[in-house]
Amino acid sequence: MKMKFNCLWVAAGITVVTAMGFSGCKPGKVSQEADGDAAEKVYVAPGKYDELYMFASGGFSGQIAAYGLPSGRLLKVIPVFSQNPENGYGYSEETKPMLNTSHGFVPWDDTHHPQLSKTNGQDDGRWLFINGNNTPRIARINLATFKTEEIIELPNVGGNHASPFCTENTEYIVGNTRFSVPLDANSDVSIDSYKQNFKGAASFIKVDKDKGTMNLAFQLVIPGFNYDLARAGKGVSKDWIFFSTYNTEQANTMLEVNASQRDKDFVMAVNWRKAEQLIAQGKGKKVPARYAHNVWNEETHSATSTIKKDVLMLDVKDYPGIVYYIPCPKSPHGADVDPSGEYIVASGKLAAVIPVFSFKKMLKAIESKQFEDQGLETGIPVLKYAAVLEGEVEKPGLGPLHTEFDSEGYAYTSMFVSSEIVKWKLSTREIIDRIPTYYSIGHLSVPGGDNKKPYGKYVVALNKITKDRYLSTGPELTQSAQLIDITGNKMKLLLDFPTIGEPHYAQSIPAALVTKNQVKFFKLEDNHHPYVAKSEKDARVVRKGNRVDVYMTAIRSHLAPDNIEGIKLGDEVYFHLTNLEQDWDVPHGFAVKGANTAELLVMPGETATLKWVPDRVAMFPFYCTDFCSALHQEMSGYIRVSPK
Ligand code: CUK
Ligand code: CUA
């Protein structure tokens, strides 16, 4: 097949890629028209619903966005690691503890990989997990409410990029370190001592079957490489998880050169079931470690943050049989497992082929000890490439990153440098089709593309650069996703749509799996918030020293109390607003002039608290921020602040 690159910069090959610092594609003059019937395929008529939810990470916005597919309509921004003035997340007293870490309050992060919870290897629509890359954290969003309900920080980890991945029945959510670092308890060492002191730590978070609550069960101490993306096995390989691994050179300067020396890096195969058994036998060591665990309490509608003091660690070099390395050309990024669980597809960013490994062959190679010496002193066996290899996809394009699958035996790989998606047949590894993406695709996402039975139908390209694709908005441009039809032999571009932040990765799920669990409003009778006012007659102002608690209610169309006096400069005022409505889609908001704590947006039946320290003697108006009825403008009041 003739290769056609829409990126001429890199047509000269890998050397050019390396020389240009792997910075991706520049837009050319080519512009692809969508097919004639594309509009019909993405048109969702007014009042009609989309077929799928797509959850995309917002990258450096620290949020997640929920879109409808095929329309690409933005349905909601879900704040996770970032404060969100739109609904007071991270500003209200109830939600502030969600952003606590062992470093203190960190109201920002970098989200990359949304991961839907699974039952029997299928998305079950219960929870969505996502990583914070910067201050290593993993969050759980409840898909019944689209609220972030839990955040757990990961100790001993630098850059929580290889995260989070879900085992077949959501037994564990797994994360790994991007930057190996000295273990927290032994961190003051010279950077020069990288090879000796820097370690990787793979985190295994146990997920409660019913509630979804997370618990950092154990960490595996692994060699001090850089770890990249992973997938848990499924079916035959369900007890394993496969991570891509780069910088096996263990360079600590100029990684772009020094971490690309070796011809092959690795896919790291981890038998998590075996590790779990060893932990159950008491083989783990408790190591001092500080990390925050923040949990939302549904009854009190508020979060609590606890700082944990230690973690169980198991050094894999002391326990043979947990970890094996599979050589993989060159600086692998994605490691993806096919629907059957038999094939592991690894994508070397700088590699000229895509290797497809066989799980069965891997087990055989382990059994017959087909190891090779790679001159590494890690104590971890390295399997022979040829012994594990099923075959290679040849000349796939430049810069393969990630692979997802459909239910018909095809795989789709994103090519960052040649900016395209390549469709190939899993059984023969022959290339079937390729389609350009605009521009520089990172991840791609097939609905259910990591499930035992993918839904297929579409592939979404998540692009790094938009340049000339939309009306321009100055130097800072929107980021972008592209919806591509994969129902036929040829892939067809249907739609471009802008995204919030950088959409690193996305997962999509049939809408019905989510809507069937949706909460429409909170029952007032179940509200056990300590500062709830369940009816207007409970509305009141209570003073204790210089702390003033205002128990306030909101119902169409007034706030009570609406005239507050007796507040003195130097007081700390807490507005606890309870929304008394018991109906879907009637939120009330609350804002007070000059408050630097944003606003509240309170759902029916819920209580939320805004802390305010008045800065001057004045008359401060407050009002409801959400247009809630014809008398919304009347929903307001005054608070008088007098001298001390
Ligand atoms: S990464 Cu592979 S292209 Cu953060 Cu998942 Cu972005
Ligand atoms: Cu309540 Cu506007």
TrEMBL record:
GO terms of molecular function: copper ion binding; nitrous-oxide reductase activity
Instruction: Please tell me whether the keyword Metal-binding is annotated for this protein.
Output: yes
| UniProtKB keywords | Copper, Metal-binding, Oxidoreductase, Signal
Q: EC number(s) of the enzyme?
A: 1.7.2.4
Output a single Gene Ontology CC term carried by this record. Answer: cell envelope
Instruction: Tell me the enzyme class.
Output: oxidoreductase
> Which InterPro entries does the entry link to?
Copper_CuA, Cupredoxin, N2O_reductase_N, Nitrous_oxide_Rdtase_Sec-dep, Nos_propeller, NosZ/Cyto_c_oxidase_sub2, WD40/YVTN_repeat-like_dom_sf
Q: What Pfam families does the database record attribute to this sequence?
A: nos_propeller
**Where, per UniProt, does this protein localize?**
Cell envelope
Q: Which residues form the signal peptide?
A: 1-19
What SUPFAM superfamilies does its record include? Cupredoxins, Nitrous oxide reductase, N-terminal domain
Protein name listed in UniProt? Sec-dependent nitrous-oxide reductase
Q: What is the protein's species of origin?
A: Pedobacter aquae
What taxonomic ancestry is recorded? Answer: Bacteria, Pseudomonadati, Bacteroidota, Sphingobacteriia, Sphingobacteriales
